[in-house]
Design brief:
With about 150 residues, the protein is of the alpha/beta class. It contains 4 helices and 5 strands. The protein has a domain of about 70 residues: 3-Layer(aba) Sandwich (Rossmann fold). It starts with 13 loop residues before the first helix and ends in a 13-residue tail after the last strand.
Length: about 150
């Protein structure tokens, strides 16, 4: 496959893909048919590691092109699946969409962390209360003025 960008790295094995995942790239374009282990298994292993689970995996295949193969990839954790022949524009817009989703996910995590910091800095406890379950604390209040569960 021709490299679609200047900072893309081509790898040939599942072991190399797993090693690459340690660097936490934004996206891995992963062929299903690799020299050592299947792309399905590589994807599953990546998605099982909490530190790597946020890596977007776009699986591609020239051999595994039916509905069951696509379902298998998505069940293994793939974020997308394309089959050959892959139109360059489809690949480009798919990668672009996944990268936009990545940026949105990062922004949402940052906002959530900011809100959590705000809640945690309150001296009073903040809890979610509804009729069907006990109160659920939403913060870890400072100065010992925490939510007491009453």
């Amino acid at each position: 496959m021709a490299q679609p960008c200047s900072n893309c790295v081509e790898i040939r094995t599942g072991a190399e893909a797993l090693e690459m995942a340690r660097d936490l790239p934004d996206i891995l374009i992963l062929d299903v048919r690799l020299l050592d282990i299947s792309g399905y298994e590589v994807c599953k292993r990546i998605k099982q590691k909490p530190e790597a689970a946020s890596i977007f995996v776009l699986q591609i295949s020239a051999s595994f092109v039916n509905k069951i193969d696509r379902e298998r990839a998505l069940e293994a954790g793939a974020d997308g699946y394309l089959t050959h022949p892959i139109d360059a524009m489809v690949l480009t817009v798919t990668v672009g969409a996944l990268l936009r989703l990545r940026r949105a996910e990062i922004a949402a995590r940052m906002v959530a962390a900011q809100w959590q910091t705000t809640f945690d800095s309150l001296r009073e406890g903040v809890a979610l209360v509804d009729r069907s379950s006990p109160p659920r604390p939403l913060n870890a209040p400072g100065s010992g003025y925490g939510f007491q569960g009453h």
